[in-house]
Amino acid sequence: MVRNPFDLSGKVAIVTGSNTGLGQSMAVGLAQAGADIVGVARREQLETEQKVSATGRRFHSILADVSQMTSIDSIINGSVERFSKIDILVNNAGIIRRNDALDFSEQDWDEVMDINIKSLFFLSQAFARQIIVQGTQGNIINIASMLSFQGGIRVPSYTASKSALMGLTRAMANEWAAHGINVNGIAPGYMSTNNTAALREDGERYQEILNRIPAGRWGTSEDISGPAVFLASEASRYINGFILAVDGGWLAR
Ligand code: NAP
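Structure tokens for the assembled complex are given below, as produced in the milestone run.
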């Protein structure tokens, strides 16, 4: 029988920041494609658990703050203890801080960089080491941003972290492709989640952004789950170090 290249049956996917927004949607999308899910979050995630369970796949919750280096091993070890192996890592957890560059604080710099790029690297490193021990193939998906490509306004540490994420995605892809680990990213456009709540509350800015999106609407969390399935699957086996924009055409303007 010919296997559907998008089928994730028998795979185990770790998704960080899975309690809400894009993370929850990707966890459910990967489960719909057949994967069991390890959801990593700072708080209880009953809604995600219910949605994943409704697909018939298994869900394991790990409560962890990814900014703490001590969390890294517990996430990987906890996943392997529960499911015996891991196959997919979605580095989705991320934060944003908004302020004028002239007034931007060291704390707002450090907190964003710690979560958006430092923890992403060390979790990816621990994941890659486990894949090599397993002797299997792996897929890492890093959640980037339009600000991996553009400068943005009033979000200097976010832009720095998401631009670094693009370079790091390529760097990790270069070193780990030989081990059968594909490292890629998804750059969401403007999506209606907590991350963009402040932007959407500013009516003028909301409209300005909307006017520039060729698709004529802001994105939804569900817009990300198909691309995540693709980059987690055999269908993308020869794609390495690439950031896929899911932006309704924003970057094409
Ligand atoms: P969101 O609803 O704010 O989701 C962020 C997730 O990250 C939440 O689950 C959050 O948990 C988790 N998180 C933050 N810090 C964490 C930590 N230290 N440890 C564990 N989990 C942590 O916003 P979202 O839009 O879905 O964001 C998901 C990703 O997409 C982020 O990387 C964001 O930068 C990126 N993104 C979003 C957009 C957009 O338009 N929405 C565009 C480009 C990129 P809590 O609920 O506990 O805070």
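The radius of gyration is 17 Å. Strands lie at 12-16, 36-41, 59-63, 88-91, 138-143, 181-188, 243-246. Further analysis is deferred to the final report.
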